[in-house]
Amino acid sequence: MNLDLSPEQVSFKESVERFARDVVSPRAAAIDASGEFPTDVMQAAAGLGLLGVTVSTAWGGSGRDYLSYALAIEAIGRASATVAASLVVTNSLVAELVEHAGTDEQRDRWLRPLARGELIGAFALSEPNAGTDAANQQTTAVRTGDGYRLAGRKVWVANAEEAGIIIVFASTQPGRRGEGVSAFLVPSNTPGIRRSALGDSLGVRGLGCMDLDFNVAVRDDQLLGTRDEGFGLAMWALQGGRVAIAAQALGIGQAALDEAIAHAKTREQFGRPIANYEAIQWMIADAATALDAARMLMWKAATVKDRGEPSVLESSMAKLAASEAAHNAADKAMQVLASAGYRRGSVVERLFRDVRAAEIYQGTSEAQRMIIAKNL
Ligand SMILES: Cc1cc2nc3c(=O)[nH]c(=O)nc-3n(C[C@H](O)[C@H](O)[C@H](O)COP(=O)(O)OP(=O)(O)OC[C@H]3O[C@@H](n4cnc5c(N)ncnc54)[C@H](O)[C@@H]3O)c2cc1C
Asked: How far, in Å, from the CA of 130 to the mean position of ligand 1?
């Protein structure tokens, strides 16, 4: 297996790493503290081609391969988990899906501004009673004269605070679960959308998550893809999204490892840096090894996506391994820093909170294990 990046991949990765260091990192603590959506950072990211990364140049995207995109998300995730997660939603769950399933008219209207960063996208699948059981959609889309009436409640919609376009999943054939769900492109200013702020959240603060109540009229030309095939589209988008969340988690885990190594080299106890003690070395060695193993799974899943093949198994394995390795790295970093990490406002304290969502969103770790087992 060739693990060398092409000169173009290296140059893109380095430019994103510079952006992460110079622009994203200095804002990370404030985004976490305020919980405000980082509009300024997202606009700057758009300038670097980080929205619509894999969207073809014909539709205004950067036309990059999936591995380049994943490396970019990892670099941003190392600086700010929130910014990386927000980019994943617009890129993988919205822009890629519009390119994959949209008509040319829909691509022209929505994909171009998404790829230019003029629009933020949101993906509304989860409901109060449709979490892991996402096929249990209670939001309905009932046929009217020239379209549908969409009614129901969506929860935990990331980017919803700022999104201009929302992909909403709804049952067009109640009782048929995943075989009767359709996807709709709903502009966020459509009359009949009621937004409610979520309560405070543990991590990835500033992701703009909201609960949304819909009672809206949509036209036929807002249907994304074929009627009743929306659940398959959601699962298609999540294949890419899970590769990207694996990358985001790896970025968080790597940042935690960096903090642990730096602290271990400078903190002295018993007259020597704690990096001299085997107990500390082993925590760092194990965390680094698990992160790198998960990174290989993420690379593999991205490569399968780049070959244009289904990556259901590889994406779930990558997300499962990366989110758990990153959680472990943040936990061990907390142990290495001890009280210096436990203090509110320390970098490790933020990483420790941020990393946890990667085992929940885009399917919990239990859901990934179910998918992996089913595919075996
Ligand atoms: C920060 C954040 C952002 C999010 N962003 C979005 C978004 O943009 N769009 C969106 O649609 N959703 C979003 N979500 C929702 C997310 O996808 C769901 O939280 C997730 O799918 C889990 O659903 P749930 O929370 O209802 O948990 P539940 O489904 O209630 O699960 C509870 C527990 O039971 C386990 N469980 C459930 N069923 C089984 C089973 N059959 N076997 C074994 N264990 C099982 C789960 O793994 C979990 O441990 C977001 C969530 C968070 C936290």
From this structure: 8
